[in-house]
């Protein structure tokens, strides 16, 4: 019940005299609370200010990172193998639609209320509907302008809004030239809809040298340099790419551009406030000039057609790789912007992921006889003129019958030169057995001397390290403690049995033989001033070398590769030293080999070809199948040397 | 009685009340007022323009009869040449239409030409525009391309009852899908950030990296016709400089525009015909 107010003159308020002890308690209470508040404020200001400042910055600033474009990859003559191409998209800056979203939200809310709808969505749901409605309107405009029927992915939109609001939202990607031209003209300059150009990888020669060049995949954006400020800020990254295979992977750090970006202050709702606090322009990555020669590479791949195999050509002096072809291959453009599941499955089913040049392991077959010859000559087991065997087509070694699979099977008595030319197995069984008498490890030691037991170290990821130069210790280790038999040596002498080498390894081997040295370091980087490589000499006398190289030339004139002397494959003015091989893998397909170098009098280019046969168990000879491929490569090389060749200057189909 | 201080503050209070009232006025009313103001002001500007034309007329009247006769003879020669060109153009157009029909190609955008006198010029750092003496009374539409003998002039930005505002090609608000002479790849032309009295320039984006140009060896820039607004092959200007863009994907370049843009007296508005493929309506 209210107390009656005493009569007071107008304009005067009631006042109390004296102090009420009950009220005094509240004075102290309020003073105490104020003191506490002041102390808290002082504590926050004096001791926690830096923490609060950091929190304020973290909450109010966002960092956007834009990866720099990748560097280009060229062939040795400056032709673009991998570059960047613009990929036009029409993007919508959600960041600029704050007011529109809000207006739409109000309209939707009012509509629900006006209809007295009992199932009123939550505020979040209505905001989501409002955003989708607004974005759909913009998409409708784009569809009308382009004559498309693109649809809105509401989930993606919602995710983008929540996680990447400051980045442009892509409405339609991969616009054609006329489409982006249409939008350029029809979109107002200040519209939140804009044409957006992103960089994607471009491989002008499509499938050419696919395994060597490699491909890239999208990533969530590169990391900026350490001195790029704002490491502690919430960071949004534009998608970048990283090398997944080949040179793209091997030289990823070099090809990657320098990340740029900007730091923006944002409103409490997350919308960007201009201008940026900090801005850095992305810088393109470094270019890479490879040693590949597009003309030779194209020739090699065309000659391989749809067969499985590999072709390698090396500059004998520098070790620069002119050709590194592996088939079957794949179209690098299929990886842009990403490889579809169907295409990935197709590549897998065809066995096209394998780079047969550096990871294909095959018995070298008769091409290994060059190494057997060198080992036998150097160990003293053989002289060039020794007629060490009388080939009658078969011989019994260690209780097993070994046959001569080359020629008619009756080579008779042969010297080393003729044996190489005719690729007589019986001769090389005997040569191998003679080394075996000296030491069962002679052949393996010579193989190791030529670095055939280890990866070449070429600048490619995935080069196999499982090549095999067998010896007694290896067999004991890998074959259940089994001992080394003379038959193993005989098999090894003709490049069969346990021997497994890569086409690249054999290319390096024949380049080394051409230079008279034991090692060739291959490289895929072109250096116009690269010096000639110098390694340990093979250590053959002139007679010994003449016998081997002469035999190799005879091979291409009258021997197992005499097809190269026919008008279809003959290269006037070019003397070729080569050796064929037909490797047999029990139960599997044969492998046709051919290794060679040219010109014989001044070796400059070495070529190795390995082609898998079509049908398991069916003979697939190196002379008929592999040597013509090498001849075509050499023909183009010779024509280029003679300036009688029109180089490819633009991509093929 | 109000305190003296309030009396002194009365003007400020009034201004404040007016400002608040203006803020509370609905946007539709504001827009109506603005348009009304423009329409009311238009006759004054148009009259000034007519007076200016009259001045020009009397200035020309001072020429001697001999000068006029000579000019007439020259004009007759030029007209004869034009007449021939018109006949050739009609033949080519007929042939073009026949081929279109034969190949079942869609009809190319057609335009009606509407010549208009320039009434006012308004050049600033923010925009560069002309006001012309034709508007909805001649069927002009917003967005219609405007050309002159020198090439692209700009686009119609606003259309009023008897006048229209043309945003010049030098204005940053104008963007055109362009091509370089001898090249089919579309690039983006946009008006530059031009000073009020300086030479007009524009910029191009998305230039392919193999494009070279310099002041000594400029490249001609034309409309591409791909944008759906401007017909193809109208001259825009000269590409006089290029430099790599920041992302390394393209080049950007500077375009020198026709200096005559600042002194145009007459322009032609290309009014799209109803049958033509209309560009998409304005974005939301």
Would you give an account of this structure?
The complex is a heterodimer of chains A (653) and B (284). With 653 residues, chain A is an alpha+beta fold. Chain A has 2 domains: 63-289, Penicillin-binding protein 2a (Domain 2) (Alpha-Beta Complex); 294-328 and 357-641, DD-peptidase/beta-lactamase superfamily (Beta-lactamase), CATH 3.40.710. Helix content of chain A is 37%, strand content 17%. In chain A, the strands form 6 sheets. In chain A, strands 2, 3, 4, 5 and 11 form a 5-stranded mixed beta sheet that branches. In chain A, strand 15 (394-397) and strand 16 (400-403) form a beta hairpin. In chain A, helix 13 (369-379) crosses helix 16 (442-449) and helix 15 packs across helix 18. Residues 1-5 of chain A have low confidence and may be disordered. The model of chain B has no long low-confidence stretch (mean pLDDT 86). In chain B, the strands form 2 sheets. In chain B, strands 1-2-5-4-3-12 form a 6-stranded antiparallel beta barrel. A 6-stranded antiparallel β-barrel of chain B has the order 6-7-8-11-10-9. Helices cover 33% and strands 29% of the residues of chain B. Chain B is globular and about 85 Å long. Chain B has helices at 4-24, 27-61, 65-102, and strands at 111-123, 128-132, 145-148, 151-159, 164-168, 175-180, 187-191, 201-207, 219-223, 235-244, 251-257, 266-272. Chain B has a domain at 175-260: Rod shape-determining protein MreC, domain 2 (Thrombin, subunit H, Beta Barrel), CATH 2.40.10. In chain B, strand 4 (151-159) and strand 5 form a beta hairpin. By secondary structure, chain B is of the alpha+beta class. The longest helix of chain B has 38 residues, at 65-102. The chains are: A alpha+beta (653), B alpha+beta (284). The A-B interface holds A 66, 68-69, 84-86, 100, 134, 137-138, 141, 144-145, 177-178, 180-182, 184-191, 193, 195, 197, 199, 257, 260, 281-282, 284 and B 172-177, 185-186, 188, 190, 206, 224, 226-230, 246-250, 279-284.
């Amino acid at each position: 019940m209210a107390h009656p107010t005493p009569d007071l003159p107008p304009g005067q308020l009631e006042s109390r005299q004296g102090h009420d002890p009950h009220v005094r308690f509240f004075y102290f209470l309020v003073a105490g609370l104020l003191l506490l508040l002041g102390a808290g404020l002082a504590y926050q200001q004096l001791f926690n200010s830096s923490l609060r400042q950091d929190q304020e910055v973290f909450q109010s600033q966002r960092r956007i990172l834009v990866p720099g474009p990748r560097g280009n990859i060229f062939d040795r003559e400056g032709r673009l193998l991998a570059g960047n191409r613009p990929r036009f998209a029409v993007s919508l800056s959600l960041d600029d639609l704050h007011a529109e979203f809000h207006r739409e939200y109000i309209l939707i809310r009012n509509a629900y209320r006006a209809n007295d709808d009992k199932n009123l969505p939550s505020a979040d749901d209505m905001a989501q509907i409002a955003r989708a409605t607004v974005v759909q309107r913009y998409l409708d405009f784009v569809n009308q302008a382009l004559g498309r029927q693109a649809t809105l992915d509401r989930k993606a939109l919602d995710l983008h809004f929540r996680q990447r609001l400051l980045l442009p939202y892509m409405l339609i990607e991969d616009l054609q030239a006329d489409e982006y031209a249409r939008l350029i003209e029809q979109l107002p300059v200040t519209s939140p809809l804009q044409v957006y150009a992103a960089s994607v990888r471009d491989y002008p020669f499509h499938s050419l040298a696919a395994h060597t060049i490699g491909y890239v995949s999208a990533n969530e954006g590169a990391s900026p340099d350490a001195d790029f400020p704002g490491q502690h800020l919430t960071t949004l990254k534009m998608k970048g790419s990283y090398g997944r295979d080949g040179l793209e992977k091997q030289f990823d750090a070099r090809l990657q551009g320098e990340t740029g970006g900007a730091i923006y202050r944002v409103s409490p709702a997350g919308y960007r406030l201009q201008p940026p606090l900090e801005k850095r322009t992305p810088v393109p990555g470094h270019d890479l000039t490879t040693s590949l020669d597009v003309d030779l590479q194209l020739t090699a791949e065309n000659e391989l057609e749809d067969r499985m195999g590999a072709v390698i050509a090396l500059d004998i002096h520098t070790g620069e790789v002119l050709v590194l072809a592996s088939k079957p291959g794949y179209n690098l453009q299929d990886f842009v912007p990403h490889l579809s599941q169907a295409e990935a499955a197709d590549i897998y089913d065809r066995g096209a992921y394998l780079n047969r040049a550096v990871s294909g392991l095959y018995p070298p077959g008769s091409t290994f006889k060059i190494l057997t010859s060198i080992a036998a000559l150097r160990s003293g087991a053989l002289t060039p003129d020794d007629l060490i065997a009388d080939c009658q087509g078969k011989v019994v070694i260690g209780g097993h019958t070994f046959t001569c699979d080359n020629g008619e099977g009756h080579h008779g008595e042969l010297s080393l030169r003729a044996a190489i030319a005719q690729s007589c197995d019986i001769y090389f069984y005997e040569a191998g057995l003679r080394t075996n008498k000296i030491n069962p490890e002679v052949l393996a030691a010579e193989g190791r001397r030529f670095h055939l037991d280890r990866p070449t170290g070429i600048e490619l990821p995935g080069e196999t390290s499982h090549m095999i130069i067998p010896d007694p210790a290896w067999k004991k280790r890998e074959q259940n403690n089994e001992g080394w038999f003379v038959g193993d040596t005989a098999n090894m002498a003709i490049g069969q049995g346990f021997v497994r080498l890569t086409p690249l390894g054999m290319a390096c081997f024949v380049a080394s033989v051409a230079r008279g040295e034991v090692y060739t370091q291959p490289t895929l980087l072109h250096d116009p001033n690269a010096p000639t490589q110098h390694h340990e000499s093979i250590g053959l006398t002139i007679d010994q070398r003449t016998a081997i190289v002469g035999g190799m030339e005879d091979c291409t004139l009258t021997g197992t590769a005499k097809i190269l002397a026919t008008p279809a494959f003959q290269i006037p003015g070019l003397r070729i030293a080569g050796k064929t091989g037909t490797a047999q893998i029990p139960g599997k397909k044969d492998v046709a080999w051919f290794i060679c170098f040219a010109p014989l009098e001044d070796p400059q280019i070495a070529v190795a070809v390995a082609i898998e046969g079509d049908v398991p168990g069916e003979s697939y000879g190196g002379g008929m199948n592999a040597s013509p491929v090498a001849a075509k490569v050499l023909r183009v090389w010779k024509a280029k040397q003679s300036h009688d060749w029109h180089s490819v200057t633009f991509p093929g189909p | 009685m109000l305190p003296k201080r309030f009396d002194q503050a009365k003007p400020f209070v009034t201004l404040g009340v007016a400002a608040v009232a203006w803020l509370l006025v609905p946007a539709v009313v504001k827009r109506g007022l603005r348009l009304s103001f423009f329409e009311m002001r238009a006759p004054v500007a148009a009259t000034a323009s007519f007076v200016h034309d009259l001045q020009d007329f009397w200035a020309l009247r001072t020429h001697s009869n001999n000068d006029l006769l000579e000019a007439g003879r020259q004009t007759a020669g030029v007209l004869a040449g034009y007449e021939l060109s018109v006949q050739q153009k009609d033949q080519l157009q007929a042939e073009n239409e026949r081929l279109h029909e034969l190949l079942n190609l869609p009809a190319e955008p057609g335009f009606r030409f509407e010549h208009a006198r320039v009434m006012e010029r308004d050049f600033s750092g923010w925009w560069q525009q002309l006001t012309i003496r034709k508007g909805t009374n001649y069927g002009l539409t917003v967005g219609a391309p405007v050309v002159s003998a020198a090439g692209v002039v700009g686009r119609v930005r606003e259309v009023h009852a008897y006048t229209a505002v043309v945003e010049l090609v030098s204005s940053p608000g104008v963007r055109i899908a362009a091509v370089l002479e001898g090249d089919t790849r579309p690039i983006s032309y946009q008006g530059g950030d031009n000073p009020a009295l300086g030479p007009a320039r524009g910029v191009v984006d998305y230039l392919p990296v193999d494009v070279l140009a310099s002041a000594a060896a400029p490249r001609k820039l034309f409309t591409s016709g791909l944008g759906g607004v401007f017909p193809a092959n109208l001259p825009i200007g000269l590409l006089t400089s290029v430099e790599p863009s920041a992302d390394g994907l393209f080049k950007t370049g500077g375009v020198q525009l026709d200096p005559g843009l600042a002194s145009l007296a007459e322009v032609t508005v290309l009014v799209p015909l109803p049958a033509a493929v209309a560009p998409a309506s304005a974005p939301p």
